[in-house]
């Protein structure tokens, strides 16, 4: 996910609902205004840090599911991103790819700040 954080008061909240190998639906909430992780039976909160410019955020739903619940990730069933943010792109992948291995449309092109 490529995301701008344009102000210090900027708040990002991303939610993913996943299905695990025990056929249990769980929700992961990533945000920059929660400072502690919290794991409950069906919901997990994960804090993230953002800079005041565009941010590239990568995380593994499989790793989060395994570490939080000791189960295996099967699929993402839903995504919710609050409307107070701008996204350049969001995509799912089976692993983390090098920038050079990504299709052209998925590569991160930062704005030229040297005018």
TrEMBL record:
It comes from the Eukaryota. InterPro entries: CFA20/CFAP20DC, CFA20_dom. Residues 10-109 form the CFA20 domain. Pfam families: CFA20_dom. This is CFA20 domain-containing protein.
